[in-house]
Design brief:
The protein is mostly helical. The protein is about 65% helix and about 0% strand.
């Protein structure tokens, strides 16, 4: 077998060039396929993560809404807020809640909590607390009023024997609480204290007691 080649012939070089081009084309094709596969996998992973995040957010929102309803439906809240009552505590409802909270001067957190429900007139479970607080405040007010009345009765008995027309021997101190004219006028009274109605004298005396305590009655106020 002869190993001699015709170096003048272009055939061997042409075959070599075609083989080289084929290898380069194949390699380029493999690279493109590999790149497309990596891109597709990354996109799928992003989509899955995004879907999971949305699902988690929806679950959290739904769970929060369920916890804060306290017997009041989301639909009722939406009606109060003047938005579409679809029963879904989504972004629209949350935004409306925040707007309402801002106007009502309460914490702007978008959560339909007891304070927000109370402000909407849907207190539900918190109504009892509000009523209890109101009763407590009324009781304290009544207690304070009772103490004031008892103090005034004691002062009146000591100063004048409880007589609204009493006048001191020198004419300086007048009425149930023995006002001098200057003190009487300074606290909103007019005319002669001893000539005023007993209710008016009680009112002025209560005002004076609230402002200065028993100081105006150094003896009878002890």
């Amino acid at each position: 077998m002869s190993h001699d080649r015709d170096l003048a012939s272009t055939l061997p070089w042409s075959r070599s060039l075609r083989a080289s081009q084929k290898r380069r084309t194949s390699a380029a094709s493999k690279r493109r396929w590999s790149t497309r596969r990596r891109t597709t996998v990354a996109a799928m992973a992003t989509a899955v993560i995004g879907f999971g995040g949305v699902a988690a957010a929806q679950t959290t929102t739904s769970g929060s809404a369920a916890k804060v309803q306290s017997g009041t439906t989301i639909t009722s809240v939406q009606r109060k807020l003047g938005i579409s009552a679809d029963g879904v505590a989504g972004p629209q409802t949350r935004a409306a809640v925040k707007r309402f909270q801002r106007k009502a001067g309460i914490a702007v957190d978008g959560v339909i909590g007891p304070q927000t429900l109370a402000a909407l007139g849907l207190a539900g479970g918190s109504t009892a607390t509000a009523r209890s607080t109101a009763k407590s405040g009324t009781a304290k007010s009544s207690s304070a009023s009772g103490t004031t009345n008892a103090t005034l009765r004691k002062i009146a008995r000591c100063e004048s024997g409880g007589d609204p027309t009493a006048i001191s021997s020198d004419g300086t101190y007048r009425g149930k609480y023995q006002f001098d004219r200057q003190t009487w006028r300074a606290n909103g009274g007019s005319g002669d204290p001893a000539a005023a109605s007993e209710a008016e004298q009680d009112r002025i005396a209560a005002k004076l007691l609230a402002a200065r305590g028993t100081q105006p009655w150094p003896v009878c106020g002890r």
